[in-house]
């Protein structure tokens, strides 16, 4: 190695460790007190994800009078919560999944759905500024999705057993999102939401098929 190359590596390492020390609050995503590592997202989203990850989903309740709010607002708030739970689950898979394909898959869910959370927030701020939460756990697909989630079951599982449990829960979770999105195709007023709902259907149905293939291959 040349002296120039050695000095360049030394500088890069110095910058890396300096960056780590400047962010002492960073934690491992699967730690009980961790803030899930959602790439390129705001601290407020990370904090909200951390709070949700500590919550028993049976404790979640619909917002007061949510069902009386415009459907588009209900969809944005409820699908955002649905996506956030998928991000939390996927962060666990990043550290516990046995198969490399599943870790890559989990990272894609985190990236894709975090971007969609940001998009939904932008629409909410633009169209429904100042409106109270319209989170409606009784929307078609949402209740079944939440019932299927049992992140505590992940704690005692490792290897392929963890992978199969993750696939089981995420498949049910995706199916709930597809049901919600199909309802939006019929009930949403804004064309942006209809188009967005169709993209959710296309992406998550493809991911369901992929997970079902893995389930067959890994369920030995």
Task: Explain how this protein is built.
- The chain has 220 residues and is mainly alpha-helical.
- The protein has one domain (31-218): Ferritin (Up-down Bundle), CATH 1.20.1260.
- The protein contains seven helices and no strands.
- The protein has helices spanning 3-21, 43-53, 71-96, 100-127, 142-148, 159-187, 191-218.
- Residues 2-42 have low confidence and may be disordered.
Helix-strand blueprint:
Blueprint: H1 3-21, H2 43-53, H3 71-96, H4 100-127, H5 142-148, H6 159-187, H7 191-218
Fraction of residues in H or I helices: 55-70%
Strand content: under 5%
Low-confidence stretches: 2-42
What is the architecture at the second tier of CATH? Up-down Bundle
- What is the helix/strand order? HHHHHHH
Classified in CATH, the superfamily is Ferritin, core subunit, four-helix bundle
Instruction: Determine the number of helices (DSSP H or I, runs of at least 4 residues).
Output: 7
């Amino acid at each position: 190695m040349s002296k120039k190359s050695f000095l360049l590596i030394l500088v890069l390492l110095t910058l890396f460790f300096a960056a780590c020390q400047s962010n002492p609050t960073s934690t491992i995503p699967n730690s009980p007190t961790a803030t899930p590592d959602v790439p390129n997202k705001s601290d407020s989203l990370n904090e909200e994800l951390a709070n949700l990850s500590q919550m028993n989903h049976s404790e979640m309740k619909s917002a007061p009078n949510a069902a009386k709010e415009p459907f588009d607002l209900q969809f944005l708030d409820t699908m955002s919560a649905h996506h956030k739970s998928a991000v939390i689950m996927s962060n666990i898979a990043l550290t516990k999944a046995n198969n490399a394909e599943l870790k890559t898959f989990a990272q894609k869910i985190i990236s894709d759905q975090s971007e969609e959370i940001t998009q939904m927030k932008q629409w909410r701020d633009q169209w429904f500024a100042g409106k109270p939460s319209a989170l409606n756990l009784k929307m078609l697909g949402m209740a079944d999705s939440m019932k299927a989630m049992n992140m505590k079951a992940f704690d005692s599982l490792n290897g392929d057993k963890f992978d199969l449990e993750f696939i089981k829960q995420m498949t049910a979770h995706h199916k709930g999102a597809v049901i919600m999105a199909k309802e939006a195709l019929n009930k949403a007023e804004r064309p942006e939401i209809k188009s967005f709902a169709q993209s959710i259907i296309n992406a998550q149905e493809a991911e369901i098929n992929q997970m079902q293939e893995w389930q067959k291959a890994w369920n030995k």
